[in-house]
Inverse folding.
């Protein structure tokens, strides 16, 4: 990865933070006899590049890391459970036509197919397009004919990191993952060989993009 070339003033800022950190941006500006507005772009560059870290009401401190290390560390700390969205579901007996309407109205690329609230598959835009191109009557064909069966569906767990979920989406070339967990057993209930799953959300490429934007945001201190 290419290392950015620092200006003389940026290097001076780094030296100040190394010696006096944590230190506020206002104090750094005073030491350099500059206005806070003049200093802001330099602090932004140094923070985004990973040379400095910033904490609200604390100040800037020298991180000793480059941006790739910081970004990777931060991404692995983000949990699926904190970023998942509400899943959009459809009953397996509904028609492909209704699936298309639901997908359009909810502005999603994949629907999770359920039977008695239990996930049994997913259906994507590509699946629906195959039915339409194949000449089937989209008003008569049920989604369970066109869906991907649950045994072949890739999922995410609420406690895993967004990085793991994103990697799984890339490896499997899918746009989203259902977020599921095992249902808690009732007191005295025997452990099932194939435990029921509880659908609690979904993560998508949009979820990952929003997390990236959040990580890249620059916060003044």
């Amino acid at each position: 990865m290419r290392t950015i070339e620092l200006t003389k003033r940026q290097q001076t800022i780094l030296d100040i933070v190394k010696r006096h950190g944590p230190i506020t941006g206002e104090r750094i500006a005073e030491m350099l006899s500059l206005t806070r507005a003049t200093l802001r772009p330099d602090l932004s560059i140094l923070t985004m590049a990973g040379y400095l870290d910033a904490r609200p009401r604390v100040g800037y401190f020298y991180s000793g890391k480059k941006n790739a290390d910081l970004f990777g560390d931060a991404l692995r700390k983000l949990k699926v459970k904190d970023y998942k969205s509400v899943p959009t579901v459809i009953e397996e007996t509904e028609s492909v036509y209704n699936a298309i309407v639901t997908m359009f109205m909810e502005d999603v690329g994949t629907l999770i197919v359920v039977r008695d609230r239990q996930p049994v598959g997913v259906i994507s835009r590509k699946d629906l397009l195959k039915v339409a191109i194949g000449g089937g009557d989209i008003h008569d064909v049920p989604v369970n004919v066109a869906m991907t069966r649950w045994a072949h569906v890739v999922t995410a767990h609420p406690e895993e990191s967004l990085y793991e979920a994103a990697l799984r989406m890339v490896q499997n070339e899918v746009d989203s993952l259902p977020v599921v967990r095992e249902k808690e057993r009732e007191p005295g209930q025997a452990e099932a060989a194939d435990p029921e799953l509880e659908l609690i959300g979904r993560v998508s490429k949009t979820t990952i993009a929003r997390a990236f934007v959040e990580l890249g945001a620059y916060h003044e201190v």
Q: What stands out?
A: The longest strand covers residues 197-204. The chain is about 45% helix and 20% strand.
